[in-house]
Amino acid sequence: MVVLGGPIPKNMVTITGTSGPVTHTTNVAVTVTAPAPGTPDFTLTTSVDSLTITAGNSGTAKITLDPKYGFDNTVDLTITAAPIGPAVTLSRTSISGKGSATVTINVSNDIVSGTYTVTVLGTSGNLAHKAQITVTISGATSQTQSDTSSNPSKSNIFRIATKPLIQIVGGAVLVGLLAAIVALSKSWNQKIFLSF
């Protein structure tokens, strides 16, 4: 398109070509369009990447949801801890638009010391994103529990003196009686020691 006279429209670009004394120009129409928007989506972020909690106490963190490219749907939130140990809860189970939720991590006194991963998963339709917090628990029980069999005073043990029983009920009856006691002890998860 060639504009004869007057100002050149803002969407026109003038191209000039010269060769010695010869000069020619032409105008080209240019259409400028905005970049195509991205697909509506969202992100989940945590206020902290890690927490250290002493057994018998609790810790908190904040999860923030940020919509992207016009996303305006509801995001459902779920929370888990792995391995199983700390009790984890969310202050809300869904967020619409931009918002946040508080993660609470409760640690009991009898939990095993170590490192746990708390994961918050956000889903909306076919979209899913997660945010994670590494939780280190100290001051709790050790990974290897003590064997109570090494300390009879703390274990469930029955001691049976068989000699007096033989004198009272006789050998044949005692055999049947002991068989019944052994079977019952297995169901109770007890230990039986026989002395003669």
Structural description of this entry:
With 196 residues, the chain is mainly beta. It folds into three domains: 1-32, no CATH class; 41-138, Immunoglobulins (Immunoglobulin-like, Sandwich), CATH 2.60.40; 154-195, no CATH class. Helices cover 13% and strands 48% of the residues. The protein is built from two helices and 13 strands; from the N terminus they run ββββββββββββααβ. Strand 10 (114-124) and strand 11 (127-138) form a beta hairpin. Helix 1 (162-169) crosses helix 2. The longest helix is centred in the last third of the chain and has 18 residues, at 171-188. The radius of gyration is 38 Å and the shape is rod-shaped.
Write the layout of secondary structure elements.
Layout: E1 12-19, E2 22-29, E3 41-46, E4 50-54, E5 58-68, E6 74-82, E7 87-90, E8 94-96, E9 99-106, E10 114-124, E11 127-138, E12 157-161, H1 162-169, H2 171-188, E13 191-195
Parallel strand pairs: 4-11, 12-13
Antiparallel strand pairs: 1-2, 3-5, 5-9, 6-8, 6-10, 7-9, 10-11
